[in-house]
Design a protein that fits this description.
The structure holds 2 protein chains of 2 kinds. Chain A contains 18 helices and 3 strands. Chain A is mainly α. In chain A, about 20% of the residues are buried. Chain B is of the alpha/beta class. Classes of the chains: A mainly alpha, B alpha/beta.
Chain lengths: ~425, ~1000
């Protein structure tokens, strides 16, 4: 939780920075609309959208429904207006009970005007166009990927063609040169000699083939090269480092753990207490995503990925009701240990104090998660051999370490010393 | 002397039969077909080079193609909304109630996977029997119904309710009787529901009936003391226990409580105080309790009453004896000695009898009264409510049905079509009833005769309660949502009677706050759910004196004795008994219980005719011969089993077998013996007179008994109390000091896991075996595979017979033959045998792939994924505790009665690998529990405490015979136990240095 509050603090700071920068700039109408856009995204989107009801009402044509002065007063402190008995304000408050609009005393009338300008501008865009543009955008990005692949393929093709062209041209040049020399005369012998040299080269090869010792040597080299390649290839059978399956939701660890710095434990609650780190249940997602809907990225629409959460829970974001037609999300498991290997997260994370990244890699930078470590037994054992046991301050180890230190004077107590490489520690 | 004592596991071994000698030479039951392959034909077979190359090429191609298969994609599906208390990977424990015993149910991710005794339970004190351990598997039984049935086809609850209500009002208006037939109900809430129902439908009567009845004792107490109760027996307060065929350690009344109490006078702590109870047992067939007795005297059922009259007379009574124990001079002599011992221990003596005959039980009451047992070892003021069946009411109900007086009948947890002595009579009578409703969870024998089946929840899905003994109330709490569309039987009654509160959970809660909390003192509902039970404490126990005249009783006993003891060609006395696993047959569809060997005979998956070896010889019956057993009304054909210790002229057959509609595992296993019950003098009696005939043919029983030979080695060690008092280490044999060793010495600097097993506390009940099955995902292999000696149990209980002489001398191998005449007088030792986790393990040295190695904590580890199945280790293991997986038992249609479906697989423990075909396995010393216990301590940053880690077998042991712990901790229980003078190690002389120490069996003779 602390990390979330830190995150909000961070956001606040940036916000003030941006605001102060904005104040420095002079506001023309166009500028104020852009300023309004920024402010809208920062202050309003958690409850409002232009074209649809979120927590608060849709804001399209707000300027036609209310006067500007009333709006400024309302936005700065709506509760005060309700308390003062403003008829419109009371009616509005009753309509959206029990939700209450946050007061924004920090927004100056100019700020509010710019926000209103932005809303007006946005409201004037036809909704369909907005959708189309959003669709187009995603389509474009999709085709971009294809173009990339296509371009790579094309490039290779071009190189191959160029190579062929060079070969052909070379040939042509050689023929032309020969013709030129033929015209000059006395060159045919040279040609013959050249042919002769080819023949002699063939004989040379034959001799080479007939030389059994040499042949054996060559075969040996070939076999050892192929064998090594095969060996290395086979060795990695069922090792899936880099395994990056397509997940049902494009969840970004980069965004959540990296940029927003949400602690791993916030979602993977089991890591500190259980064998399984556990994939968070959807109620954990909803802690934030009941209001964090990334509408700014999707032209006021709820992010399609977040919508998948709503779909799974049969949650209606407008009425905020959960329906009965739930459907669990089937994530694709990335880190697969065989059934006969027992692994316990809490032993490693809580007792040994190992960082998640040690096995899972730079998870905070992963847009999509992939398997970072090979998860082979060799990899486990190596770590057990090298890692010193985190026994300080853990009374469990006191007697055991004491018993071992009598044996191992001064040597470091690794997991392996305490029996961490024995079969029965993981296989049962 | 002790080291010479001859022990044997079965008659084959005793007689060293040819087959046995031959078999014991082989490691595996079926020799490998090496000779067939290597014989001349095999070697001279020509494989053309081209064929060889073709096969090679095809093989390579096939393997390559198979290897090209993409790695399977695993899905990870989180909860939509995770319940707060569930953390995936961490078990939750809920208190609940099994059979009146408070239990803790281990659940993982919302599914119950193991049941363990609740240490708060005043009866079990944290232990649990084999049935309780196995009960979790019943939840995942595929043979259960998925929803209510109406006239044989699935129906909705509404329709069923409408139908029943309609029929009920018809029955009510036409003044027909409504009957609720159930096994004993001691749940206060269920009773209240039935009372409410009776209030609405005034023609209703609730009749309780137990398949194996205790009406005799209840009626006798009514007759003797005016108390219609089953008393509580206190075996812990008895120094001399005399039992007449009461199997109080196996199945009798409250056997878990009795186990604990009985062992408290015989275990290590008691012996240290130089105190041990004396137990004398008279019975026909060898029971679990009889086999634990210090002195056991075979006694025919017909002689039982006479013997009791003699005992009564010897204690000072004067009853006429119509017939003396002429056929049984041993018993005659013994009665006189027993009387002496009993009168010497007045106030600390207890006589119990397993008979259901009211007269016999009245006589037993009189004897106990003479001995001053009332108020000390027998408590009539805090009675037990575990059995309350009334046999005569039940028979009267059948007559009511015959007369067409019954309009509606409800069967709750009872199955008369199977266990009534005349099924035909019952089903004909039942056909006359208009409304027939069964609450069975499956279409069993009775349910299939009913129009309506309204399946009840499994207890792990239910709210409920129980009141097993006076003042003690336990709560049943669901651990999983109902898996199928089942419903509480109680909720049915509430709906049909239009009760105000129809939700049974609410009803139970109301009932507790209204009636029980005030009585038993408990604080709040929430607290109750945490502790599982409340106990009001004992009421004052007062003493009772028997004052009635016994002449009429003696008369009845004499008449009964004459009927039972009928003489004639092939006429024998039949003694019917329950075995510890299958009991009365309600749990017959539980494969864990079917495969749990009967403690004495070690037979699995069948019942049989037990017959004494000498008597069988006289009749020309050999082992496994098919025998026809015939009474006036019933006949069955069962294989014979030669049972040492069986009284001559008697046979024994187990009840609970021969179910026809139990389900996949339990149907058509053995034969039904319930029809042999006699209804005499108002009670069902478990003895009758039958004729037996050899019908030709053999049937091999799946017996685990002689699968492994002990080769005359000194594996079990015992002594007598006299010798023990002189020298506590008596009988432990020679200590072996090995000066030379083949193995290197290893340190165990951290933990050193060891175990101590007290042979004197172990009663051989087998609860540990089932607990081990549940904890370690041990497959069930079925009858055929047990015959091939392929049972998979990691922990087995070996049963050794030896001869006992009256003067305390044991029979040694040299003079064994001349004593063979007296085959009845055998004594038994039970020895739990599991991987000994040898420090110098012979199995480890022979493994070519290092699949079994030693840990620095002293465990002999088995890495399944490394094992290639050479079975060298099993060959080299001197304790024969390694098991080989011949099949993928969980994915093979041949093992359809167990895990071969996804539903039942939910019972698997996710922390233990389900082993695949072709690998060895054995006791891992519950390494998953060790690791979990260590991790728990690490997470809490504290040293590991003794008792933090308990083995599954240890946890469930009713007598605390198994102690596990860290030998590096001098304060630990196990350290102290192994320091006991009685400790010895099995096969110490071969220097395997086992981690498991046994403590000698002590006999009080």
């Amino acid at each position: 939780m602390r990390s979330i509050s830190l995150f909000f603090k961070g956001v606040k700071q940036t916000l003030f920075l941006i605001l102060s920068l904005l104040f420095i700039g002079e506001g023309t109408y166009a500028q104020s609309a852009t300023e309004g856009a920024t402010l809208f995204k920062q202050k309003c989107t958690s409850c409002h959208a232009v074209n649809r009801v979120v927590i608060g009402p849709a804001l399209k044509d707000i300027d036609q429904r209310h006067e500007e002065a009333w709006l400024i007063e309302w936005i700065q402190n709506s509760q005060k207006m309700i308390a003062s008995g403003d008829a419109k304000a009371v009616a509005l408050a009753n309509q959206y009970k029990p939700n209450v609009m946050t007061a924004f005393p920090e927004l100056t009338p100019d700020n509010i005007k710019s926000i209103l300008a932005y809303i007006k501008e946005e409201g004037n865009k036809p909704a369909a166009a907005a959708n189309a543009s959003a669709g187009g955008q995603s389509g474009e990005s999709g085709s971009n990927d294809e173009v990339n692949d296509f371009m790579l393929g094309g490039l290779i093709l071009v190189i191959i063609i160029a190579f062929l062209v060079i070969l052909v041209l070379n040939r042509v040049i050689a023929t032309l040169e020969r013709l030129l020399l033929q015209k000059q005369g006395g060159v045919i012998e040279e040609e013959k000699a050249k042919r002769g040299s080819i023949r002699s080269r063939l004989e040379h090869w034959n001799a080479l083939l007939n030389n059994k010792k040499r042949m054996f040597f060559i075969v040996l080299i070939l076999v050892s090269i192929l064998g090594t390649m095969g060996w290395i290839g086979m060795w990695d059978t069922d090792v899936h480092t880099g395994y990056q399956p397509v997940q049902p939701i494009k969840f970004s660890h980069q965004l959540h753990a990296g940029i927003n710095k949400i602690d791993c434990q916030y979602c993977h609650t089991g890591a500190y207490k259980s064998k399984n780190a556990s994939i968070p249940s959807l109620n954990v997602c909803m802690n934030c995503h009941s209001y964090v809907q990334a509408t700014d990225k999707y032209n006021g629409e709820i992010s399609p990925e977040i919508k998948k959460i709503y779909r799974a829970l049969d949650y209606d974001p407008t009425t905020k009701k959960y329906g009965p037609d739930t459907k669990p999300i089937e994530w694709v498991r990335i880190h697969n240990l065989p059934d006969f290997a027992y692994f316990n997260h809490s032993q490693h994370v809580k007792v040994a104090g190992i960082k998640c990244q040690k096995c899972h890699g730079p998870i905070q930078n992963m847009e999509e998660v992939y398997q970072y470590s090979p998860l082979t037994m060799k990899w486990c054992i190596n770590c057990h051999r090298e890692t010193e046991v985190n026994h300080k301050g853990n009374a469990y180890y006191d007697r055991i370490i004491a018993a071992h230190e009598q044996l191992k004077k001064g040597e470091k107590i690794t997991a392996a010393v305490l029996g961490g490489t024995e079969c029965g520690k993981c296989h049962y | 002397m002790e080291s010479n004592k001859k022990y044997w596991k079965g008659l084959e071994e005793l007689h060293n039969t040819k087959d046995f000698v031959e078999n014991s030479k082989h490691e595996f039951a079926e020799p490998l077909p090496i000779e067939e392959v290597l014989n001349e034909a095999g070697l001279s077979t020509v494989t053309p080079r081209r064929d060889f190359l073709k096969a090679l090429g095809f093989g390579l191609g096939a393997v390559t193609l198979a290897a090209c298969q993409r790695v399977p994609v695993h899905k990870s599906i989180p909860y939509l909304v995770k319940p707060e208390e569930i953390v995936p990977g961490i078990p939750n424990y809920y208190s609940s109630t099994f059979n009146g015993h408070s239990v803790l149910v281990k659940t993982r991710e919302g599914r119950p996977i193991k049941v363990e005794g609740n240490p708060n339970c005043i009866l079990s004190k944290g232990s649990l029997d084999s049935k309780g351990q196995a009960s979790v598997l019943d939840l995942y039984d595929v043979s259960k119904l998925k929803g209510p049935m109406l006239n044989g086809s699935p129906a909705t609850w509404n329709r069923v309710d409408e139908f029943i209500k309609n029929e009920l009002s018809k029955a009510q208006s036409s003044n027909k009787k409504i009957r609720i037939i159930s096994s004993t109900v001691n749940s206060p809430s269920t009773k209240a529901v039935i009372a409410d129902f009776t209030a609405k439908y005034s023609n209703t009567k609730h009749i309780q009936v137990d398949a194996v009845s205790y009406t005799g004792i209840i009626k006798a107490n009514e007759n003797s003391f005016g108390k219609v109760v089953l008393p509580r027996y206190h075996f812990d307060k008895a120094d001399v226990i005399v039992s007449f065929s009461a199997d109080f350690l196996g199945t009798w009344i409250s056997h878990l409580e009795f186990n604990r109490d009985y062992a408290s006078n015989r275990d290590n702590a008691s012996l240290k105080n130089k105190k041990m109870s004396r137990h004398i047992h008279f019975e026909a067939g060898m029971s679990l309790t009889g086999s634990n007795a210090d002195t056991r005297i075979p006694l025919k059922p017909s002689e039982e009453g006479i013997a009791l009259i003699k005992l009564y007379n010897a204690l000072g009574g004067s009853l006429p004896i119509s017939k003396d124990l002429v056929d049984n001079p041993n018993a005659d002599k013994a009665i006189a000695l027993v009387a002496k011992e009993l009168s010497a221990a007045k106030g600390r003596a207890l006589v119990v009898c397993g008979s259901n005959d009211v007269s016999i039980q009245i006589l037993v009451n009189a004897i106990n009264s003479l001995l001053g047992s009332y108020g000390t070892t027998i408590d009539l003021d805090n009675p037990s409510y575990q059995y309350a069946g009334n046999d005569s009411e039940y028979v009267e109900f059948i007559n009511e049905m015959k007369r067409g007086e019954v309009g509606a009948v409800f069967f709750l947890n009872t199955n008369p079509a199977y266990d009534y002595l005349n099924a035909k009579e019952f089903s004909d009578a039942l056909a006359k009833v208009a409304l027939r409703v069964s609450f069975a969870d499956r279409e069993d024998e009775t349910a299939s005769l009913c129009q309506i089946i309204v399946p009840n929840h499994h207890y792990l899905e239910s709210w409920g309660d129980a009141n097993p003994v006076e003042g003690y109330y336990t709560i049943t709490q669901p651990t999983i949502n109902p898996v199928s569309s089942t419903r509480y039987a109680e909720e049915g009654f509430l709906i049909w009677s239009d009760a105000a509160v129809k939700d049974y959970y609410q009803y139970v809660q109301n009932n507790w706050s209204k009636n029980i909390f005030s009585k038993a003192g408990g604080t709040s509902w929430k607290h109750l759910l945490q502790i599982g039970s409340v106990y009001a404490g004992q009421k004052k126990i007062s003493s009772y004196t028997f004052t009635h005249d016994l002449n009429a009783v003696a008369q009845t006993i004499a008449v009964r004795s004459n009927t039972l003891g009928k003489k004639g060609e092939n006429i024998v006395e039949l003694h019917l008994y329950e075995n510890t696993a299958i009991g009365d047959g309600k749990t017959a569809n539980n494969p864990w219980l079917q495969e749990l060997p009967d403690p004495v005979s070690k037979v699995t998956w069948d019942n049989f005719v037990a017959i004494g070896p000498k008597y069988a010889e006289k009749l020309g019956i050999k082992e496994f011969d098919l025998i026809e057993v015939k009474s006036a009304t019933h006949q069955v054909i069962l294989p014979a089993l030669l049972q040492p210790g069986q009284a001559s002229g008697t046979i024994s057959i187990a009840l609970g077998y021969g179910r026809t509609k139990a389900g996949k595992a339990g149907s058509e296993v053995g034969k039904n013996a319930f029809p042999f019950l006699d209804f005499v003098n108002g009670t069902f009696q478990n003895a009758s007179s039958v004729t037996i005939n050899k019908v030709g043919g053999r049937y091999e029983l799946a017996q685990t008994q002689t699968h492994y030979s002990i080769e005359g080695r000194n594996i079990v060690r015992e002594t007598t109390l006299k010798d023990y008092l002189k020298n506590p280490s008596a009988g432990t044999g020679r200590r072996f000091e090995n000066k030379v060793d083949l193995w290197k010495e290893y340190d165990r600097p951290g933990h050193s896991w060891v175990m101590a097993i007290d042979l004197n506390a172990c009663t051989g009940c087998g609860a540990c075996v089932v607990a081990c099955n549940a904890e370690n995902n041990i497959p069930v292999v079925g009858r055929d595979e047990v015959r091939r000696r392929r049972e998979m149990h990691w922990l087995r209980i070996d049963r050794y017979y030896s001869f006992q002489e009256e003067d305390g001398k044991s029979v040694t191998e040299e003079n064994e033959i001349k004593h063979l005449e007296n085959m009845d007088n055998v004594s038994v030792v039970y020895q739990p045998m599991l991987c000994q986790h040898c420090n110098h393990a012979p199995c480890e040295t022979v493994c070519p792939v290092l699949a079994t190695v030693h840990s620095s904590e002293g465990l002999n580890q088995m890495a399944y994924n490394r094992c290639v199945g050479t079975r060298y280790c099993a060959n080299n293991c001197p304790y024969k505790v390694r098991r080989f997986n011949w099949f993928n038992y969980w994915n093979d249609s041949r093992f359809d009665n167990y895990l071969n479906n996804e539903f039942t697989q939910l019972a698997l423990n996710p922390d233990v690998t389900a082993r695949s075909r072709g690998v060895m396995e054995k006791c891992s010393m519950c390494v998953q529990r060790i690791q979990a216990g260590k991790l728990h301590a690490k997470l809490e940053k504290r040293p590991l405490k003794d008792g933090d880690i308990k083995m599954a077998c240890q946890q469930t042991c009713p007598t605390n015979a198994i102690i596990f712990g860290d030998a590096n901790d001098p304060e630990s229980e196990v350290y102290k136990a192994l320091k006991s003078e009685r400790t010895y190690y099995v096969l110490e002389e071969i220097s395997t240095k086992p981690s498991i120490g046994y403590q000698t069996k002590v006999r009080n003779i």
